[in-house]
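Morning. Coffee machine broken again, so started the prediction first thing and wrote up yesterday's gels while waiting. Chain of 123 residues, entered below exactly as on the submission form.
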Amino acid sequence: MESFVPQHAAVWFEIPVSDMERAKAFYGAVLRNELADQESSANPWSMFKAKDQSSVSGHIYPGKPASDGRGPTIHLAVAEPLEDALERVKQNGGEVVSPVVTIPAGRFAYCTDPDGNSFSLFV
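Came back before lunch.
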């Protein structure tokens, strides 16, 4: 069997939320990146903006969150300084659940959004 090595291991993500407006406000404030409502399907969703169409991105949608950080963890890019973004998590109803972790690729910290979805902020 021939192996497959893609350009990007992940190509899209979806975050289920209980309140679309609250989630758009939360992620918009934390990331300083306004989410864009999409009209291309019967179900409402709002997309994270990325540099261009070849960039990996994702969206929020009305769904059942995996509360208390039990679902997959999405690592979201944020502008430096990371500590300012972590403060915005707390100010907007989320929780920072780890100290800042430094790895060769950068720095990040684990968080949860107001629904309990697990994510990290990465610089």
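Residues 12-122 form a domain with the 2,3-Dihydroxybiphenyl 1,2-Dioxygenase; domain 1 fold (CATH 3.10.180.10). Going to sketch it on the whiteboard this afternoon.
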